[in-house]
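step: validate -> pass
step: tokenize input -> pass
step: predict -> running
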Amino acid sequence: MIYWKLFVTFFKIGLFNFGGGYAMISFIQNEVVYKHAWLTTAEFTDVVAISQVTPGPVGINMATYTGYTAADSVWGAFIATFAVCLPSFILMLAVSKFFLKYQKSPSVEAVFSGLRPAVIGLIAAAALVLCNGENFVDLKSLFFFLAAFLAVWKYKIGPIGVIAACGVLGFLVY
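step: predict -> pass
step: emit ->
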């Protein structure tokens, strides 16, 4: 039964989310923390952090970890990962043939113009999800955020170096 729930939940997440893993975070949280209670809010925040520093897409990493935790097995991880990827695979097979032909169409361009701000909103919502009551943003965290933002945006420092530096500083400060 848990495998079926994992499949349906992560298939739905994969089917109805656009904009990549960061845009999925709030939807995943709603499903795995509030609806199914497979993870607590604190565990979910940890999963987001771990998913960001491990290789691979964030949404897929989160599905894998949640599936393993919920089913307490590798099969749960496999099913959740497969289910979150399956809608994109099917959609890409169906759309790729037509997209190349119609990508310059005013209708297609209008759809993508509408999706871009929505994706930005979903990513902003994901950032707010991480600012929950259990992980209150203090002045030190705000400093790390601003320093990381400026390092990447203004000084064009690579995100891997920024993540490593913030990890070391976090270890030293906290």
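step: describe -> The two ends are 41 Å apart (CA to CA).
step: cleanup -> pass
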